[in-house]
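Dear H.,

Thanks for agreeing to be a second pair of eyes. The structure we're designing against is below in C-alpha coordinate form, covering all 462 positions.
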Protein backbone atom coordinates (compact mmCIF):
# COMPACT_ATOMS: atom_id res chain seq x y z
CA UNK A 1 0.00 0.00 0.00
CA UNK A 2 2.80 2.45 0.89
CA UNK A 3 4.47 2.01 -2.46
CA UNK A 4 1.20 2.58 -4.25
CA UNK A 5 0.51 5.79 -2.30
CA UNK A 6 3.99 7.20 -3.06
CA UNK A 7 3.53 6.51 -6.74
CA UNK A 8 0.23 8.46 -6.77
CA UNK A 9 1.86 11.40 -5.15
CA UNK A 10 4.53 11.43 -7.81
CA UNK A 11 1.96 11.50 -10.58
CA UNK A 12 0.03 14.31 -8.85
CA UNK A 13 3.09 16.59 -8.60
CA UNK A 14 4.34 15.87 -12.07
CA UNK A 15 7.39 14.02 -10.83
CA UNK A 16 8.84 17.02 -8.88
CA UNK A 17 9.80 17.36 -5.25
CA UNK A 18 7.41 19.45 -3.10
CA UNK A 19 10.40 21.62 -1.93
CA UNK A 20 10.76 24.29 -4.60
CA UNK A 21 13.93 26.26 -3.62
CA UNK A 22 16.69 25.87 -0.97
CA UNK A 23 18.21 29.26 0.11
CA UNK A 24 21.71 27.95 0.72
CA UNK A 25 23.73 24.75 0.46
CA UNK A 26 23.74 23.93 4.20
CA UNK A 27 20.00 24.43 4.50
CA UNK A 28 19.54 22.36 1.39
CA UNK A 29 21.53 19.43 2.88
CA UNK A 30 19.64 19.54 6.17
CA UNK A 31 16.37 19.76 4.29
CA UNK A 32 17.30 16.70 2.23
CA UNK A 33 18.14 14.72 5.41
CA UNK A 34 14.81 15.60 7.00
CA UNK A 35 12.98 14.75 3.80
CA UNK A 36 14.72 11.39 3.61
CA UNK A 37 13.80 10.51 7.23
CA UNK A 38 10.21 11.56 6.63
CA UNK A 39 9.90 9.32 3.58
CA UNK A 40 11.46 6.36 5.42
CA UNK A 41 8.83 6.66 8.13
CA UNK A 42 6.05 6.83 5.52
CA UNK A 43 7.21 3.83 3.55
CA UNK A 44 8.46 1.70 6.42
CA UNK A 45 11.95 1.29 4.93
CA UNK A 46 14.67 2.79 2.82
CA UNK A 47 14.45 0.47 -0.16
CA UNK A 48 11.30 1.84 -1.76
CA UNK A 49 11.95 5.65 -2.12
CA UNK A 50 15.38 7.09 -2.89
CA UNK A 51 16.16 10.87 -2.96
CA UNK A 52 18.72 12.28 -5.31
CA UNK A 53 19.40 15.86 -6.42
CA UNK A 54 15.97 17.19 -5.46
CA UNK A 55 14.04 14.62 -7.68
CA UNK A 56 12.25 11.44 -6.51
CA UNK A 57 13.48 8.43 -8.53
CA UNK A 58 10.16 7.11 -9.85
CA UNK A 59 11.65 4.12 -11.71
CA UNK A 60 13.22 2.78 -8.50
CA UNK A 61 9.86 2.87 -6.76
CA UNK A 62 8.15 0.95 -9.58
CA UNK A 63 11.01 -1.55 -9.95
CA UNK A 64 11.08 -2.33 -6.24
CA UNK A 65 7.33 -2.80 -6.13
CA UNK A 66 7.42 -5.07 -9.18
CA UNK A 67 10.20 -7.09 -7.59
CA UNK A 68 8.13 -7.53 -4.43
CA UNK A 69 5.09 -8.62 -6.47
CA UNK A 70 7.15 -11.07 -8.58
CA UNK A 71 8.68 -12.57 -5.42
CA UNK A 72 5.21 -13.04 -3.91
CA UNK A 73 3.91 -14.60 -7.15
CA UNK A 74 6.95 -16.85 -7.37
CA UNK A 75 6.42 -18.11 -3.82
CA UNK A 76 2.73 -18.68 -4.52
CA UNK A 77 3.57 -20.53 -7.76
CA UNK A 78 6.11 -22.67 -5.90
CA UNK A 79 3.50 -23.62 -3.32
CA UNK A 80 1.04 -24.55 -6.09
CA UNK A 81 3.64 -26.72 -7.85
CA UNK A 82 4.52 -28.41 -4.58
CA UNK A 83 0.86 -29.13 -3.90
CA UNK A 84 0.45 -30.44 -7.46
CA UNK A 85 3.43 -32.77 -7.03
CA UNK A 86 2.08 -34.03 -3.74
CA UNK A 87 -1.34 -34.51 -5.31
CA UNK A 88 0.18 -36.50 -8.17
CA UNK A 89 2.15 -38.59 -5.73
CA UNK A 90 -0.95 -39.36 -3.70
CA UNK A 91 -3.26 -39.96 -6.67
CA UNK A 92 -0.91 -41.93 -8.92
CA UNK A 93 -1.66 -45.21 -10.70
CA UNK A 94 -3.62 -47.42 -8.27
CA UNK A 95 -2.12 -50.72 -7.19
CA UNK A 96 -3.90 -54.05 -7.31
CA UNK A 97 -5.12 -55.54 -4.02
CA UNK A 98 -4.27 -59.02 -2.77
CA UNK A 99 -6.42 -60.94 -3.56
CA UNK A 100 -7.11 -58.94 -6.73
CA UNK A 101 -10.38 -57.01 -6.75
CA UNK A 102 -9.78 -53.72 -8.63
CA UNK A 103 -11.02 -53.82 -12.26
CA UNK A 104 -8.22 -53.70 -14.82
CA UNK A 105 -9.71 -50.58 -16.45
CA UNK A 106 -9.17 -48.72 -13.15
CA UNK A 107 -5.52 -49.80 -12.96
CA UNK A 108 -4.77 -48.18 -16.33
CA UNK A 109 -6.30 -44.65 -16.33
CA UNK A 110 -5.08 -43.99 -19.88
CA UNK A 111 -6.94 -47.14 -21.03
CA UNK A 112 -3.83 -48.39 -22.85
CA UNK A 113 -3.22 -51.97 -21.76
CA UNK A 114 0.13 -53.81 -21.77
CA UNK A 115 1.36 -55.62 -24.87
CA UNK A 116 2.16 -59.30 -24.69
CA UNK A 117 5.47 -60.83 -25.76
CA UNK A 118 6.59 -59.46 -29.14
CA UNK A 119 8.33 -61.95 -31.44
CA UNK A 120 9.65 -61.78 -34.98
CA UNK A 121 8.32 -64.20 -37.55
CA UNK A 122 10.37 -67.30 -38.42
CA UNK A 123 12.71 -66.83 -41.38
CA UNK A 124 13.08 -69.64 -43.93
CA UNK A 125 15.91 -70.07 -46.42
CA UNK A 126 17.31 -66.57 -45.77
CA UNK A 127 14.02 -65.04 -46.93
CA UNK A 128 14.02 -61.56 -45.38
CA UNK A 129 10.30 -60.96 -45.94
CA UNK A 130 9.48 -61.97 -42.36
CA UNK A 131 12.21 -59.77 -40.84
CA UNK A 132 11.34 -56.78 -43.04
CA UNK A 133 7.77 -56.79 -41.73
CA UNK A 134 8.88 -55.15 -38.48
CA UNK A 135 10.40 -52.13 -40.23
CA UNK A 136 7.91 -51.80 -43.09
CA UNK A 137 5.95 -48.54 -42.86
CA UNK A 138 3.08 -50.12 -44.79
CA UNK A 139 2.85 -52.97 -42.25
CA UNK A 140 3.05 -50.49 -39.37
CA UNK A 141 0.17 -48.53 -40.84
CA UNK A 142 -1.90 -51.74 -41.01
CA UNK A 143 -0.94 -52.42 -37.41
CA UNK A 144 -2.25 -49.03 -36.32
CA UNK A 145 -5.56 -49.66 -38.09
CA UNK A 146 -6.19 -52.58 -35.69
CA UNK A 147 -5.01 -50.88 -32.49
CA UNK A 148 -8.49 -50.78 -30.95
CA UNK A 149 -8.98 -54.53 -31.40
CA UNK A 150 -5.51 -55.26 -30.03
CA UNK A 151 -6.15 -53.04 -27.02
CA UNK A 152 -9.38 -54.89 -26.20
CA UNK A 153 -7.76 -58.30 -26.29
CA UNK A 154 -4.85 -56.98 -24.19
CA UNK A 155 -7.35 -55.89 -21.54
CA UNK A 156 -8.80 -59.42 -21.53
CA UNK A 157 -5.24 -60.82 -21.31
CA UNK A 158 -4.35 -58.67 -18.30
CA UNK A 159 -7.49 -59.84 -16.49
CA UNK A 160 -6.51 -63.44 -17.30
CA UNK A 161 -2.92 -62.97 -16.06
CA UNK A 162 -3.90 -61.44 -12.73
CA UNK A 163 -6.65 -64.01 -12.15
CA UNK A 164 -4.49 -67.06 -12.84
CA UNK A 165 -1.56 -65.73 -10.79
CA UNK A 166 -3.90 -65.35 -7.82
CA UNK A 167 -5.24 -68.88 -8.29
CA UNK A 168 -1.72 -70.36 -8.55
CA UNK A 169 -0.92 -68.96 -5.08
CA UNK A 170 -4.33 -69.68 -3.58
CA UNK A 171 -5.12 -73.24 -4.72
CA UNK A 172 -4.48 -76.01 -2.18
CA UNK A 173 -5.10 -79.78 -1.92
CA UNK A 174 -8.34 -80.53 -0.09
CA UNK A 175 -10.35 -77.83 -1.88
CA UNK A 176 -13.40 -78.93 -3.84
CA UNK A 177 -13.35 -78.35 -7.60
CA UNK A 178 -16.49 -76.21 -7.28
CA UNK A 179 -14.74 -74.01 -4.69
CA UNK A 180 -11.74 -73.57 -7.01
CA UNK A 181 -13.87 -72.72 -10.05
CA UNK A 182 -16.04 -70.24 -8.17
CA UNK A 183 -13.02 -68.40 -6.72
CA UNK A 184 -11.43 -68.17 -10.17
CA UNK A 185 -14.61 -67.09 -11.94
CA UNK A 186 -15.59 -64.52 -9.31
CA UNK A 187 -12.11 -63.00 -9.44
CA UNK A 188 -12.09 -62.87 -13.24
CA UNK A 189 -15.56 -61.29 -13.33
CA UNK A 190 -14.39 -58.46 -11.06
CA UNK A 191 -11.19 -57.82 -12.99
CA UNK A 192 -12.82 -57.91 -16.43
CA UNK A 193 -15.75 -55.73 -15.20
CA UNK A 194 -18.34 -58.23 -16.42
CA UNK A 195 -20.99 -56.54 -18.55
CA UNK A 196 -23.34 -58.89 -20.38
CA UNK A 197 -21.95 -59.91 -23.75
CA UNK A 198 -19.60 -56.90 -23.85
CA UNK A 199 -17.15 -58.20 -21.25
CA UNK A 200 -16.83 -61.35 -19.19
CA UNK A 201 -15.79 -64.98 -19.20
CA UNK A 202 -15.43 -66.58 -22.62
CA UNK A 203 -16.02 -70.19 -21.55
CA UNK A 204 -16.32 -72.27 -18.34
CA UNK A 205 -13.30 -73.00 -16.17
CA UNK A 206 -11.78 -76.30 -17.20
CA UNK A 207 -10.20 -78.06 -14.22
CA UNK A 208 -9.61 -81.51 -15.70
CA UNK A 209 -7.61 -83.90 -13.51
CA UNK A 210 -5.11 -86.65 -14.26
CA UNK A 211 -6.27 -88.85 -17.18
CA UNK A 212 -8.99 -86.31 -18.08
CA UNK A 213 -7.33 -83.87 -20.47
CA UNK A 214 -10.04 -81.28 -21.20
CA UNK A 215 -13.63 -80.03 -20.95
CA UNK A 216 -14.34 -80.98 -17.34
CA UNK A 217 -15.89 -78.47 -14.95
CA UNK A 218 -17.98 -79.54 -11.98
CA UNK A 219 -21.76 -79.46 -12.16
CA UNK A 220 -23.76 -78.41 -9.09
CA UNK A 221 -23.37 -80.92 -6.27
CA UNK A 222 -20.14 -82.45 -7.61
CA UNK A 223 -18.17 -83.45 -4.47
CA UNK A 224 -14.78 -83.93 -6.24
CA UNK A 225 -11.81 -82.76 -4.15
CA UNK A 226 -8.37 -81.79 -5.43
CA UNK A 227 -5.68 -84.17 -4.11
CA UNK A 228 -1.95 -83.70 -3.55
CA UNK A 229 -1.10 -86.25 -6.28
CA UNK A 230 -3.43 -84.72 -8.89
CA UNK A 231 -2.32 -83.11 -12.15
CA UNK A 232 -4.91 -80.42 -12.84
CA UNK A 233 -5.28 -78.39 -16.04
CA UNK A 234 -6.72 -74.91 -15.41
CA UNK A 235 -8.17 -73.69 -18.72
CA UNK A 236 -10.34 -70.56 -18.76
CA UNK A 237 -11.08 -67.65 -21.06
CA UNK A 238 -11.85 -63.94 -20.82
CA UNK A 239 -13.16 -61.59 -23.49
CA UNK A 240 -13.89 -57.95 -24.32
CA UNK A 241 -16.50 -57.45 -27.05
CA UNK A 242 -15.95 -61.04 -28.16
CA UNK A 243 -12.14 -60.68 -28.43
CA UNK A 244 -11.20 -63.90 -26.65
CA UNK A 245 -8.18 -64.91 -24.59
CA UNK A 246 -7.88 -68.72 -24.48
CA UNK A 247 -5.07 -69.65 -22.14
CA UNK A 248 -4.28 -72.62 -19.88
CA UNK A 249 -1.67 -74.04 -17.53
CA UNK A 250 -1.03 -77.25 -15.59
CA UNK A 251 -0.79 -77.13 -11.80
CA UNK A 252 0.80 -79.83 -9.64
CA UNK A 253 1.85 -80.14 -6.00
CA UNK A 254 4.00 -83.27 -6.24
CA UNK A 255 7.37 -82.58 -7.94
CA UNK A 256 7.43 -86.04 -9.52
CA UNK A 257 5.35 -84.60 -12.39
CA UNK A 258 7.82 -81.81 -13.16
CA UNK A 259 9.18 -83.47 -16.32
CA UNK A 260 5.70 -83.99 -17.73
CA UNK A 261 4.85 -80.34 -17.10
CA UNK A 262 8.19 -79.21 -18.59
CA UNK A 263 7.64 -81.30 -21.73
CA UNK A 264 4.25 -79.75 -22.46
CA UNK A 265 5.36 -76.19 -21.69
CA UNK A 266 8.37 -76.65 -24.00
CA UNK A 267 6.16 -78.08 -26.75
CA UNK A 268 3.73 -75.14 -26.51
CA UNK A 269 6.58 -72.63 -26.73
CA UNK A 270 7.92 -74.52 -29.74
CA UNK A 271 4.54 -74.23 -31.45
CA UNK A 272 4.41 -70.50 -30.71
CA UNK A 273 7.92 -70.02 -32.11
CA UNK A 274 7.07 -71.94 -35.30
CA UNK A 275 3.80 -70.09 -35.94
CA UNK A 276 3.69 -67.21 -38.41
CA UNK A 277 2.14 -65.68 -41.50
CA UNK A 278 2.28 -68.12 -44.47
CA UNK A 279 3.42 -70.99 -42.21
CA UNK A 280 1.69 -74.31 -42.93
CA UNK A 281 -0.25 -75.68 -39.97
CA UNK A 282 1.19 -79.17 -40.46
CA UNK A 283 4.72 -77.81 -39.98
CA UNK A 284 3.79 -76.54 -36.54
CA UNK A 285 2.36 -79.93 -35.56
CA UNK A 286 5.56 -81.71 -36.60
CA UNK A 287 7.72 -79.29 -34.57
CA UNK A 288 5.50 -79.72 -31.49
CA UNK A 289 5.54 -83.52 -31.63
CA UNK A 290 9.32 -83.68 -32.04
CA UNK A 291 9.88 -81.65 -28.86
CA UNK A 292 7.08 -83.24 -26.83
CA UNK A 293 8.17 -86.80 -27.50
CA UNK A 294 11.82 -86.10 -26.72
CA UNK A 295 10.82 -86.17 -23.03
CA UNK A 296 10.12 -89.01 -20.67
CA UNK A 297 8.95 -89.04 -17.07
CA UNK A 298 9.62 -91.45 -14.23
CA UNK A 299 6.62 -92.14 -12.00
CA UNK A 300 6.83 -94.52 -9.05
CA UNK A 301 9.84 -96.36 -10.48
CA UNK A 302 8.48 -96.72 -14.00
CA UNK A 303 9.52 -94.61 -17.00
CA UNK A 304 6.88 -93.34 -19.42
CA UNK A 305 7.43 -91.60 -22.75
CA UNK A 306 5.49 -88.35 -23.06
CA UNK A 307 3.12 -88.53 -26.05
CA UNK A 308 1.32 -85.75 -27.90
CA UNK A 309 -2.44 -86.38 -27.70
CA UNK A 310 -2.98 -86.69 -31.42
CA UNK A 311 -6.72 -85.95 -31.55
CA UNK A 312 -6.45 -82.68 -29.63
CA UNK A 313 -5.17 -79.48 -31.22
CA UNK A 314 -4.96 -75.71 -31.18
CA UNK A 315 -7.31 -73.56 -33.24
CA UNK A 316 -7.98 -70.18 -34.78
CA UNK A 317 -10.17 -67.72 -32.85
CA UNK A 318 -12.51 -65.05 -34.17
CA UNK A 319 -14.91 -62.61 -32.54
CA UNK A 320 -17.39 -64.48 -30.28
CA UNK A 321 -16.17 -67.74 -31.83
CA UNK A 322 -13.69 -69.83 -29.88
CA UNK A 323 -13.14 -72.39 -32.67
CA UNK A 324 -13.02 -70.37 -35.88
CA UNK A 325 -12.35 -73.12 -38.44
CA UNK A 326 -8.58 -73.72 -38.63
CA UNK A 327 -6.90 -76.34 -36.46
CA UNK A 328 -3.28 -76.39 -35.29
CA UNK A 329 -2.23 -80.05 -34.91
CA UNK A 330 0.22 -81.21 -32.25
CA UNK A 331 1.50 -84.17 -34.27
CA UNK A 332 3.01 -84.37 -37.74
CA UNK A 333 0.70 -84.68 -40.73
CA UNK A 334 -2.51 -82.79 -41.05
CA UNK A 335 -3.46 -79.91 -43.31
CA UNK A 336 -1.10 -77.75 -45.37
CA UNK A 337 -3.38 -74.75 -44.80
CA UNK A 338 -1.38 -71.61 -44.02
CA UNK A 339 -1.76 -69.05 -41.28
CA UNK A 340 -2.70 -65.56 -42.45
CA UNK A 341 -2.09 -61.98 -41.42
CA UNK A 342 -4.13 -60.64 -38.49
CA UNK A 343 -5.48 -64.04 -37.47
CA UNK A 344 -5.79 -64.99 -33.80
CA UNK A 345 -4.74 -68.49 -32.67
CA UNK A 346 -4.80 -70.56 -29.52
CA UNK A 347 -1.57 -72.55 -29.56
CA UNK A 348 -2.20 -75.39 -27.11
CA UNK A 349 -0.51 -78.71 -26.58
CA UNK A 350 -1.41 -81.78 -24.53
CA UNK A 351 1.04 -84.43 -23.35
CA UNK A 352 0.13 -87.82 -21.90
CA UNK A 353 1.76 -90.79 -20.22
CA UNK A 354 -1.05 -92.96 -21.63
CA UNK A 355 -2.05 -93.85 -25.19
CA UNK A 356 -2.00 -90.30 -26.51
CA UNK A 357 -5.65 -90.46 -27.65
CA UNK A 358 -8.73 -89.11 -25.86
CA UNK A 359 -12.40 -90.12 -25.93
CA UNK A 360 -15.67 -88.75 -24.47
CA UNK A 361 -16.23 -89.81 -20.87
CA UNK A 362 -18.01 -88.75 -17.65
CA UNK A 363 -20.98 -86.41 -17.21
CA UNK A 364 -21.14 -83.52 -19.67
CA UNK A 365 -20.85 -79.97 -18.34
CA UNK A 366 -19.69 -77.82 -21.33
CA UNK A 367 -22.12 -76.58 -23.99
CA UNK A 368 -22.04 -73.99 -26.74
CA UNK A 369 -24.55 -72.65 -29.22
CA UNK A 370 -23.71 -73.69 -32.76
CA UNK A 371 -22.23 -70.61 -34.45
CA UNK A 372 -23.64 -71.60 -37.83
CA UNK A 373 -26.91 -73.18 -36.69
CA UNK A 374 -29.80 -72.37 -39.05
CA UNK A 375 -33.17 -71.29 -37.71
CA UNK A 376 -34.95 -74.30 -36.22
CA UNK A 377 -38.62 -74.13 -35.11
CA UNK A 378 -38.95 -75.21 -31.46
CA UNK A 379 -42.16 -76.80 -30.28
CA UNK A 380 -41.37 -77.02 -26.56
CA UNK A 381 -41.92 -73.80 -24.61
CA UNK A 382 -39.18 -74.83 -22.18
CA UNK A 383 -36.72 -75.07 -25.10
CA UNK A 384 -37.69 -71.59 -26.30
CA UNK A 385 -37.25 -70.16 -22.80
CA UNK A 386 -33.86 -71.83 -22.36
CA UNK A 387 -32.67 -70.62 -25.77
CA UNK A 388 -33.66 -67.06 -24.79
CA UNK A 389 -31.52 -67.35 -21.64
CA UNK A 390 -28.59 -68.70 -23.68
CA UNK A 391 -28.87 -65.94 -26.28
CA UNK A 392 -29.09 -63.22 -23.64
CA UNK A 393 -26.26 -64.41 -21.37
CA UNK A 394 -23.83 -66.32 -23.60
CA UNK A 395 -24.64 -65.80 -27.28
CA UNK A 396 -22.24 -68.08 -29.17
CA UNK A 397 -19.78 -68.31 -26.23
CA UNK A 398 -19.49 -71.58 -24.31
CA UNK A 399 -21.31 -72.10 -21.02
CA UNK A 400 -21.87 -74.80 -18.40
CA UNK A 401 -24.74 -76.00 -16.24
CA UNK A 402 -23.50 -74.01 -13.23
CA UNK A 403 -23.77 -70.87 -15.35
CA UNK A 404 -27.32 -71.74 -16.40
CA UNK A 405 -28.17 -72.07 -12.68
CA UNK A 406 -26.57 -68.67 -12.07
CA UNK A 407 -28.59 -67.13 -14.93
CA UNK A 408 -31.83 -68.30 -13.28
CA UNK A 409 -32.65 -71.32 -15.45
CA UNK A 410 -34.51 -74.14 -13.67
CA UNK A 411 -35.59 -77.65 -14.69
CA UNK A 412 -33.77 -77.26 -18.00
CA UNK A 413 -32.38 -80.78 -18.54
CA UNK A 414 -35.03 -81.84 -21.07
CA UNK A 415 -34.92 -78.47 -22.86
CA UNK A 416 -31.11 -78.62 -23.08
CA UNK A 417 -31.27 -82.12 -24.55
CA UNK A 418 -33.88 -80.94 -27.07
CA UNK A 419 -31.63 -78.05 -28.20
CA UNK A 420 -28.69 -80.46 -28.56
CA UNK A 421 -30.79 -83.01 -30.52
CA UNK A 422 -31.86 -80.29 -32.95
CA UNK A 423 -28.28 -79.04 -33.48
CA UNK A 424 -28.93 -75.61 -32.01
CA UNK A 425 -26.52 -76.30 -29.13
CA UNK A 426 -23.48 -78.60 -29.15
CA UNK A 427 -22.38 -80.65 -26.13
CA UNK A 428 -18.66 -80.93 -25.27
CA UNK A 429 -18.18 -83.84 -22.84
CA UNK A 430 -14.96 -84.34 -20.88
CA UNK A 431 -12.11 -85.80 -22.97
CA UNK A 432 -10.13 -88.57 -21.31
CA UNK A 433 -7.15 -90.84 -22.01
CA UNK A 434 -6.90 -94.27 -20.32
CA UNK A 435 -7.49 -94.36 -16.57
CA UNK A 436 -4.37 -94.28 -14.45
CA UNK A 437 -2.36 -92.09 -16.84
CA UNK A 438 -1.55 -88.40 -16.45
CA UNK A 439 -2.10 -85.57 -18.91
CA UNK A 440 -0.82 -81.98 -18.97
CA UNK A 441 -1.66 -78.87 -20.99
CA UNK A 442 -0.29 -75.40 -21.74
CA UNK A 443 -1.88 -72.82 -24.02
CA UNK A 444 -1.41 -69.22 -25.19
CA UNK A 445 -3.32 -66.86 -27.47
CA UNK A 446 -1.26 -65.22 -30.22
CA UNK A 447 -2.00 -62.47 -32.75
CA UNK A 448 -0.35 -62.59 -36.18
CA UNK A 449 0.03 -58.84 -36.50
CA UNK A 450 1.22 -57.33 -39.83
CA UNK A 451 4.55 -56.36 -38.24
CA UNK A 452 5.17 -59.09 -35.65
CA UNK A 453 3.78 -61.99 -33.67
CA UNK A 454 2.33 -61.02 -30.29
CA UNK A 455 1.90 -63.67 -27.58
CA UNK A 456 -0.79 -61.58 -25.99
CA UNK A 457 -1.46 -63.85 -22.99
CA UNK A 458 2.19 -64.30 -21.98
CA UNK A 459 2.98 -63.62 -18.32
CA UNK A 460 5.77 -63.95 -15.78
CA UNK A 461 4.36 -67.32 -14.76
CA UNK A 462 4.48 -69.06 -18.17
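And this is the sequence the design step returned. I haven't edited it by hand at all.
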Amino acid sequence: MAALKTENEIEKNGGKDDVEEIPNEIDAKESEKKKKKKKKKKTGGDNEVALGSGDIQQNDVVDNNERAEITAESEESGEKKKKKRNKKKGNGKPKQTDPPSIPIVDLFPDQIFPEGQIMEYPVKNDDRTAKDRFSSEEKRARDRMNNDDYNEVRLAAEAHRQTRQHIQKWIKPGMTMIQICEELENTARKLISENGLKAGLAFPTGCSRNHCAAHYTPNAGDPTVLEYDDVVKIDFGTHINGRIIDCAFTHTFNPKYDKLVEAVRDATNTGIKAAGIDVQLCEIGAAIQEVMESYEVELDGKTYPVKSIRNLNGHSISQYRIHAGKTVPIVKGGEATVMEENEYYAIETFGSTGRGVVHDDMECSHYMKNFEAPYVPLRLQSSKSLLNIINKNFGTLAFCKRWLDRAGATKYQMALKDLCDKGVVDAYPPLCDIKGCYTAQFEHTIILRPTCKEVVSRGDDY
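Two observations from my side: DSSP finds 13 helices and 18 strands in the chain. The two ends are 72 Å apart (CA to CA).

Warmly,
E.
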